[in-house]
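Lecture notes, unit on protein representations.

Consider one protein chain, 208 amino acids long.
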Amino acid sequence: MKFICLISTGIDSPVATYLMSRYGDAILVHSSNYPFVSRDTSQIAEMIARRLREVTRKAMRLYILPHGIALSEIKKSCEERLTCVLCKRMMLRYGRYIAEMEKGDAIVTGESLGQVASQTLNNIFVEQYNLKFPVIRPLIGMDKEEIIRIAREIGTYDLSMEGNITCEAVPRKPATRANLSKVLEEEEKLSVKSLIRRIIDEAKVLDL
């Protein structure tokens, strides 16, 4: 099997990628939030990817996407409290698009239930709505200490702590129970297909 792994510079998603790599090959997709973060996270994402390559002993491909382009449009056009949900819907679409290109079987994400606003059960449902593609969440029932333990064991924890950069696009009061109809209505304000094509076209691709 081939998994399209959405990977941030945080602690969770590298652990999710590591766990699923035992069952197949991994294509890594990093969505850079620059300029909504104080510095570009691409280099840290690449270091995490190379560490995962070492620990899994499997070749990996890394896509680094200029997601800040889409995030700028979301911030400019859409209701602020829905920013995180709309952001995650775009990231899942990137995964779906790259899965078609790479003949992937499923998308892998690092959510564990209820840790942050975008990971409530309600929001997870809304974020995945109409994706029409499998999404695997290997950490969904784990608590943070379990995830940190694995991150330390595989050597990604310190790298993730270096990449622990606050995203300035996060609203002060993010929606924790996003209304699906409202999210779809706000999404109509975006040129979703053209944004995805542009962002994928401008991706940096590395074979590790």
